[in-house]
Amino acid sequence: MDDMGLDEDENDNNEEEDDDDDEEEIECDPFLLKLEGHTGAIFCLDVSANNSLIATGSEDDTAMVFHSQNAEIVLKCQGHKDSVTCVRFSHDSQYLATGDLSGLIKVWKMASKEEIWSFELSDLEWLQWHPKGLVLFAGTVDGQVWMWKGPQFVETKTMQGPNAACSAAVLVNQDRCLCCGYGDGSLRIWDLKSAAVAHSLTDRHHAHEGQVNCIDCSTEFNLIATGGLDGIVELVQSNNGKFITKLDCRPRGGEGSSQQQRREGEDEEDAEERENKNSIESVALASRLPLLAVGTLAGELLVWDCHTTMLRHRFSNEAGVVKLLWLDHWIFTAGLDGCVRVFDGRSGSLLKKLQCHSKEILDFRLIG
Fold first, then answer.
1. How far apart are alpha carbons 187 and 310 in whole angstroms?
2. How far is Cα 320 from Cα 203, in angstroms, rounded to an integer?
3. Can you give the pLDDT at residue 33?
4. Residue 275 CB-density burial (10 A; 0-12 exposed, 13-18 middle, 19+ buried)
5. Which of 105, 255, 262, 326 could disulfide-link to 271, CB 3.0 to 4.6 Å?
């Protein structure tokens, strides 16, 4: 982090306007490495636990593994049938799981650089490894959660949710349970040993009005945060599934419900675009601070105090926020304007703006 030159008293006001009609006018900040090899958009990436490898998944139906020091291609993962939208390293950096939109999952052994296992599901929503063992999870568009135990990946469990996509998930309760959000707005906490529902929020008073887009948890505060298409964040206790509160993160001046009736004279496309601007794309709980960061498609970063459930900071970006991450008290956000911004989560001040690309940033990770 020393090389980033973060100065907590610095406030970068030299923000350039994006010009969609002339992309050449967008001047990107200097970078250390450029990863090349894909022929289509890169949808996802991951960094190995030892920080030596970077994996990417692309629209070109391939995944690639690069060396993080020199950008050398270590492995090209071929054989997928559709865009690769999920890439995940195992906790020990020895295996890489890749998944495409069609539901084809492959596992690659990094030592031998070969595919060791594959499996086909319905359309894939997400992939995730257990942080302490060789166990792989996947969520699908038909509401199923799959669990395989490596290294043979023969032992399998399935957890069937509602008739809606399992759109997001996070491990909770000392990694003994999996909290899943669904396309119908409901939330279920699954006990991994029994593959049964331990807790659930499914009634209309506690569930989201639309799809659950993102989930995060804090082990220190026994807290789960879910962000939805409805512009609402819900806080839930992870140890007992108790609903705590809802946090309204919709743009200021917005209307009271994401399911509101269409305005007079408004066509369906305009109504959908207006409602989608409420969408929460990323939630992140700080590791040692009782703070929650929320990024919205409307381009806002919101910081909430989890103890008081009060809004502490609200910052408007120039484009939608697709992902955010905490590092100590810093918040990193990635935007549809190709920028990464760094904020002080305690004061809410903007510390740094990096113009990383002329196109949208779809995913990012912190190395080191």
1. 23
2. 30
3. 86
4. buried
5. 262
The amino acid at 314: R
- The three-state DSSP-derived secondary structure of the chain is CHHHCCCCCCCCCCCCCCCCCCHHHCCCCCCCCCCCCCCCCEEEEEECCCCCEEEEEECCCCEEEEECCCCCEEEEECCCCCCEEEEEECCCCCEEEEEECCCEEEEEECCCCEEEEEEECCCEEEEEECCCCCEEEEEECCCEEEEEECCCCCEEEEEECCCCCEEEEEEECCCCEEEEEECCCCEEEEECCCCEEEEEECCCCCCCCCCEEEEEEECCCCEEEEEECCCEEEEEECCCCCEEEEEECCCCCCCCCCCCCCCCCCCHHHHHHHHHCCCEEEEEECCCCCEEEEEECCCEEEEEECCCCEEEEEEECCCCEEEEEEECCEEEEEECCCEEEEEECCCCCEEEEEECCCCCCCCCCCCC
The answer to whether the CB of 75 falls within 8 A of the CB of 84 is no
Give the global pTM.
0.87
φ, ψ of residue 338 in degrees (nearest 5) = 80, 10
Strands 243-248 and 280-285: unpaired
**Rounded CA gap, 304 and 368, in Å?**
27
Structure-token pair, residue 108: 């690659």
- Name the CA dihedral angle for 66, 63, 354, 282, rounded to a multiple of 10 degrees: -130
Residue 207 CA to residue 246 CA, distance in Å, equals 10
Q: What is the pLDDT of residues 226-243, one digit of tens each?
A: 999 999 999 999 999 999
In this predicted model, what pLDDT tens digit does every residue of 114-172 receive, in sequence order? Answer: 999 999 999 999 999 999 999 999 999 999 999 999 999 999 999 999 999 999 999 99
Q: How far apart are CA 31 and CA 278, in angstroms?
A: 33
Total length of the chain: 368
Distance from C-alpha of 247 to C-alpha of 224, rounded to nearest angstrom: 13
